[in-house]
Specification:
single chain; alpha+beta; two-stranded antiparallel ribbon; 6 strands; cytoplasm
Length: 124
Amino acid sequence: MDISKIGSSAIDKSFGRGGQAKDAVVIVSNLEIHKPVVTFCDMSQAQKEFAFETAEHAFKLSAKREKRYFKDIAEYIKNEFDNKFQGTWHVIVGLHFGAFVSYESQCMIHFYINQLGFMIYKFG
């Protein structure tokens, strides 16, 4: 899916799951990027912070139109994780998806930035 087709109004809205505050982290052009909302985490703090930083950077690249599709964002994050941490990492990025996966202990996170979901896990 072409990220530009989401539209600024869809991306700008924070869904505020669980009554979370809408704390903005950064503004890219007209795009306000909110703090990540974690739905599941079995990952070290260092890996978690790296996931947030990498996903936020990929989100900014999409706002600049350097990464146009969700698969490009997922590929970017996967390559960053493969280079920084050992093993084989898998990344799913999208507005709507479901997953049931096997993963290595302490190597999985699922979170949202604005309405965009990120699932990052290690297996293999």
